[in-house]
## 1
Amino acid sequence: MTARDLTTFEAQPFGLTLARTLSESVPIVRVRLSTRPDGSVPQSFALDDAASELRYRELSGSRLPLGLTVHRPVESRWELTLPLADDVRCFGLGERYSGLNLRGRTHTLFATDDKNHLEAIDSMYKAVPCVVLFRAGVCTALFLDSPARTRWRLDPDLTGTLGIEVASRRGFTFYVIGPAELPQVVGAYTRLTGRAPLPPAWALGHHQSRYGYESAAEALAVARELRQRRLPSDALVLDIHYLDEGRPFTVSPTRFADFEALVQQLHELDLRVVTILNPAVSAAPNDPLGVSGRERDVFCRAGDRPYAAPARPGLAHWPDFLRPDVRAWWGERHAFLIDRGVDGIWNDMNEPALFGDEHPLPADARELPPDDAQLFLQTTPEGDVGHFEVRSLYGLTMCRATWEGLLQLRPNQRPFVLTRSGYAGMQRYGACWLGDNFSWFEHLRLSIPMLLNLGLCGVPFTGVDVGGFDDDATGELVARWYQLGIFYPYLRNHCSIGRRHQEPWQFGSLVEDAVRRLLEVRYQLLPYLQGLFHEHRQTGAPILRPLCWHYPDDPIALEIDDQLLFGEHVLVAPIVTRGTRRRAVYLPAGRWYPFGGGEPLLGGRYHSCEWGWSDVPAFVKQGTILPLAEPSPSTARLSSAELRLRVFGTTARGVLYEDDGASRDYEHGGYNRWQLRVNGRKLRATLEHAGYDAPPRRVVLEGPGYRREVQLKR
Ligand code: GLC
């Protein structure tokens, strides 16, 4: 095939269609580039076009947007380029080991289990191929809907170009969203790819985990410690030790002999149980899951046999989650865990990770091997496809299988699914964390821009292993990490086998007391956090936001990525270096109250702030009413806990969101949203949306120098 540029409709030999959304305030241009004569790509895998609310109209004779050119030098490589002005910042691209601005290097998106979380790491567990170009507050998002390997050259050589390489034989769909302001662009992107459902309230509490609690007795002992030491918590996580030799949907008959009794005892302690599952299914001839899978032909194939390679359960097969019948088969299997009382499911190793073969497509491969030489074959409605064409969808489709399985089994309960791998749209299936980080201050610091970039690609329910996974944590690191961690939407303490135990009491009473106090604050913040999840559903706004989300014209705010906004009104600026008690905090325009009390500080400048071990390193903007709950040991009684409306300033506003925290009724209007206003000391509460019959609870208004009970009248 001859190399040629493609800039207009007439260009051949590949099909191109251009379309534009109808009736959208933010323009979206959709470009389909395909090897097929009808111009369609085999399947827009992340997006179920039929389910999308957006409607498109074909454009004809148009040139490609943004001065984009497309070039196809070899059959399985597409190269897109567009000019990139000097002052454009690049955000997004999902999970990147990077500061907020991704410009100046090449980023590879291809789901990979790479443990070297260092500057040189390129592909990570998730691939969200959406970059947000930000220039003087005006943004355009480029979303390249392809789960094949994509490489984004964000002007590493200062040539003023953005280049994207797509390793696909079939083609892809490309969306240009904007120009508009950052919140509008992310809003439109999340209308396209979906928004996160509301988590069950318990999933927003503190999760205690370790790889691994090695027996039922150890798990129970940890749970009892959490309660005896009054460390607010909601979940205990069981890593692979609970499984029988790593095989999905089994329980170890020796280590976790009476599993149901354990789950019941944990429930009696008001702790939920989250269990891990890997997708690898044992290929042993007598493994019941393997037998069932082979009978139904559910596995990815090498030729006409199930593909097999080493993984946790020994030689293993991988279900082909692209197929709806396979997702249903996997989903139904969760009855095994649900019947035993398990509350949430953790999907791990779903890049998928193969032992000893973390990079199955060599980084320097210029062309894709033929379909049948791409590790294995998967099945789409259009026929067989080589795995590398669809690799980054493996994690998302596994989560979808889990999510749909849980909904079948417990139709009116909000599922909790946690994943390591994912693709654009993964937010529809729950939470994610950033895999195997290290107990290093550097990784505490990097978690801020990494989670901010994920949020800008529509993924709000995120966290990282608090305290760090690999390496030994210190008490100082753990205390500092909780100071930030209480603001992670997903909050889990987790660490690796062979490493120092990391539960908050492992480091002496000073650290334990600090963590207790911080966790109490997390539990106080839950009503506000629930409101932020609701806001995400309404608008697509992430929960953790870079300062430029709300202050796009402030040149200093634009550079800051070691601070974040937790919703609009809370600014978090933790200590992220060892041996430090003080740091410079930049406060944008306005006045900001220290979270822990005291006079407001003037924004538009830096302040030097000292944070002790149990301080909450945050500020609240003047004019805010924060809905807070009284501190409690778990979320079990959250909806009837005393509500504290904390007022920062003499006139202030806020939003209170309420629902039952458990069912899916909110999807059909089963929630309340109050607009709150305070003037002087007088509260005006307007019920903007009424759909939930809230249980009675005490409501207290707390302002500078006053505290009194108030009624919220419907
Ligand atoms: C992977 C996960 C880690 C887990 C471990 C054992 O490394 O990323 O969180 O603890 O596997 O299951």
## 2
Amino acid sequence: MHAMSENSSKSQAVRGTQDLRGSMASAFRHIDSIASQLSELYRFEELKTPIFEHSEVFHRTLGETSDVVSKETYTFLDRGGDSLTLRPEGTAGAVRAFISNGWTQDLPCRFFYSGPMFRYERPQKGRYRQFHQIGVEALGLNDPSADVESLSLAHDLLLKLGLKNRFKLHINTLGDLESRQNYRKTLVDYFTQHKAKLSQDSLVRLEKNPLRILDSKDPGDREIIKNAPQFSSSLTPQASEFFQQVLSGLKSLEIEYHLDPLLVRGLDYYSHTVFEFITTDLGAQGALLAGGRYDGLVKLMGGGDVSGVGWAAGVERLALMIESQFASQQKPLVAVLAAEDSAINYCQKISHLVRSFGNPVELITSGNMGKKFKRADKIKSQFCVVIGSKEMSSKILTLKNMATGVQIEVGVEGLKKTLES
Ligand code: HAM
């Protein structure tokens, strides 16, 4: 083992990772629980796969030229010399599990998952190196209604999280293989004409995967991309029909969408439908949830000819969106202050009673009264009760509303009603 360096980092979290507490951690749990409840309604069953896989699981599937694989994976040799990769996303692992467990006999399979993912990206608000996804994958369903159901589940989730009017669904089709081959030829012709002005990264993509140039963030590239030929002109009639059926399904469910011909996604396994639910509330990291259809992936990974469609959402991004509204959904917080040590047991009893009403309670016993009140202020308690020998004998409590300063005397039996009013 390496000794820690002089300039020790033992008390620092790794860049791009976060320690979550309080309302952020509660928001995570809330998102997870809403997503798993909804998934059950749509008949998706929970799947837990390992956090690391053999590196090939990701390299062959996500695409060697995709940013995720070429620059962002955490890959290491284990002590046996095997190359392993911390999962950067959930789809490849779910498909690997499907194939290696022989679940091919069991089609269709609908999976829901949730957990940490790892990408070596430049950290900023909404973008981390360890982040969390919730996601779904439906395998063995090759008609457009599966895309519509998957989108409907995503849409329900965002509404259930209270995000109505705070996102937009962008959707596009990447067609079938033949459509993409047609388009590839058209694009290579176009970008070759503008080769002199392309960024270094895009010149490499021009050789390996010209479609990915459309995804470039480089300002110079963006100028050229603006006038690039649109994919719709290369679609085969079958692929076009498939997409029209997805759109008509969305219309019948009254799910609004925005056709976005430049949406290609950063991973290589997609075909037909691709989509992103985008918000403008988080600055640059606007994609809350994204996915699409990946009909060739199972075969590419050594399984049968099984189609797939799914999506994943960034839990940190969703949590940032709901955190403020989430904190205020709790019942009022009550601070119970022991005026003297002999009152502590009675304070415990009152705290226990108030918690049974569903109100959070912090029992404050240490320090002098000044310090105790300071603490009650600091935790922003809405009510405060001070209990000493007088209250113990009279069984009459004084409940102070911290915002208004109004004090109400109330018997123990009347406590619940007073807190609710
Ligand atoms: P993705 O677009 O790479 O797709 O990621 C899905 C979502 O994960 C993003 O929209 C974003 O909310 C979140 N996310 C991605 N990277 C980060 C990061 N570094 N920090 C915070 N959040 C992040 C996939 O992963 C596909 N597996 C989705 C899919 C499932 N397609 C079909 N099935």
## 3
Amino acid sequence: MTKRIAIFASGSGSNFQAITDACRKGLLDATPALLVCDRPGAYVVERATAADIPYFAFAPKSYQTKVEFEDHILQELARYEVDFIVLAGYMRLIGPTLLDAYKGKIVNIHPSLLPAFPGLDAVGQALEYGVKLTGVTIHFVDEGMDTGPIIAQHTIEIGPDDTRESLEKKIHEIEHTFYPKTLQQLFTVKGEAAIR
Ligand code: GRF
């Protein structure tokens, strides 16, 4: 059955765009039911509006606790009958409220070959370290920072002339096809069995 997905994002949302485009083109058998955004002014909200996808944009500071805002998110997820959560540049750890309600049904994309360079600015960390190979990881989400079971990885070479800008561009280009493709594999019964 077609999955109803919520995409969580905090910024520009180029992955949000790639995933929703893939759904529209029939490359990904999923319905983008909701955008959840923790920065009401983020560009991804404009993308959702343009694509006619409902969004829930909230300011975490207007809640007393993470439990409170995640409870509110849960209500929105129920309202739009979401059965799977796709994190795409959501700059916040997922708490027990969401993890318990969507056990094994939350995935994330991270711009490094995990377990190398978790957390903030993975691209900067890779350049600073001087690795010659980096990449993209798609993984299930657990309570840690980029620590859940790995679903798929894609390598990217860092050449001598690469800058932060050129590397970010390469990473985004890969992400935009790799994320929808991996989700499609995950959403087929065979793919889910193969990955688990
Ligand atoms: C991506 O590089 C993703 O790997 C990371 O955050 C970035 C989001 O970019 N988690 P965008 O907002 O989808 O353009």
## 4
Amino acid sequence: MEVIIFKDQQTASKKISAFIKAKLQKKKGLVLGMATGKTPLNLYEELIKKYEKGMMDFKDVSTFNLDEYYGLNSEDKNSYCYYMRENLLKKINIDQENCHIPNANSQDVPAHCLQYEQKIREKGGIDIQILGIGSEGHIGFNEPASSLVSRTRMKTLTQQTIKDNSIYFDDKKSVPIHVITMGLGTIMEAKEILLMAFGDSKSEAILNTVEGPLTSMVPASILQMHPKATIVLDEKAAKQLKRREYYQWVYNNRPSWQIGI
Ligand code: F6R
């Protein structure tokens, strides 16, 4: 696990977008795992800027989103379909056929989840999975006590997540309770993982993820088992880490051949 601490979200997002650009130059048909929420918004803006300047071509890129609220249709302003369309997909030259989000209206959820995983496999797996983190340590919507080897499935949100996410809903009581989410086992199959966290409210989850024990009570702690997971933070999210000086030392002394963020 590599931990990188930048002074703020803007700097971190610029660095990550440059990293994705470098990866895209090496592989035109990059497969990206996407997150929603406020954490990746800056990153998506940076990717759009690079596309508009002719620095990135998304023609052959595929995307797979982590999750979707169950029951919301794709026109609903709170659906992750809508979020992705408005914040990234309609602003770049990606083929909409290559953009995948769990179907929130599926009548046969288990069959749909199997198909979702099958589509990821058909694309050769996810090259880079972008993650945010919940205040209780969820990734995707794998809430505490999720199986560490779980696959894409329906989950019930915790009351804390419902409260955290209600800030995006006009009617605070209308946050769906159920979601379809990639599982921890699904996420762990990505070749590379970038987890981003910004702000004080994420510092405890980050402490538990990076320096705590591996436990399903902090689902993101499974990333300790991933061979290529990078945790990208701002100062605030990093503030509780005990070994932050070491992480900065490692970053400042990276071998010149290492392609990183
Ligand atoms: C969203 C997702 C979630 C969020 C997390 C943080 O697709 O999978 O795990 O990344 O809840 O949300 P924000 O970024 O809004 O703090």
